Amino acid sequence: MTGGARLIVYHKQATSARLRFLRFAEHTVCGFGPLPSLAVVVDVAELSRFDPAVVPHPAPLLGRMARELALSAGSIALDPKFVARVDVPGGPITVYAAAFTSIDPPLAAAQAQGGAFIDLTQARDLPPPELELLRRIYSHVLGG
After folding, report:
1. Which residues contact 96 (CB under 8 A, 6 or more apart)?
2. DSSP secondary-structure letter at 69?
3. Which of 53, 75, 81, 122 has the most other CB atoms within 10 Å of its CB?
């Protein structure tokens, strides 16, 4: 794990704007581990109160994600306008969003790792903090 950071990766279809999220084998959309059980997504108005002393840079997360999915460098790009904080007992966790840069989502790469791409409607069984993060990313990406 890189610091207290997580990475949520999505794919937006260029022609239809269909937005899908990578769900990992551990039944989480948070790259490199689910959020702790007491996690609460920080309200946007309160973000500054939860700024950690050190914020992990997302580049190692992008590289690790590409390696684990056996994708080439540059296959995943950081969404520079999205960042969220999750309050947990050990201190805040920073959550970044990133997009697959390919025309189609790398379905085979996800399946090889036990994952899958899901629509927002297929995420109902995720924990409430993850659902809130997906809702925020969906609104951010599709301009809601």
Report:
1. 5, 6, 7, 8, 58, 61, 78, 79, 82, 83
2. T
3. 75
**Quick check: 7 and 62 in contact, CB under 8 A?**
yes
Ramachandran area for residue 132 (φ above 0: left; ψ -120 to 50: alpha; else beta): alpha
**Unique residue bearing structure tokens 């704007």:** 17
Token pair of 109 as six digits: 């790469």
Strands (E), the chain: 5-12, 19-23, 40-41, 76-87, 93-100, 116-118
Whether the full predicted model's pTM is greater than 0.85, yes or no, is yes
12-26: average pLDDT? 94
Which residues lie below 8 Å from residue 138, measured CB to CB, with a gap of 6+? 19, 120, 144
pLDDT tens digits for range 21-56: 999 999 999 999 999 989 999 998 787 777 766 777
CATH hierarchy code of domain 5-142? 3.90.79
* Separation between Cα atoms, residue 43 and residue 81, nearest integer Å: 16
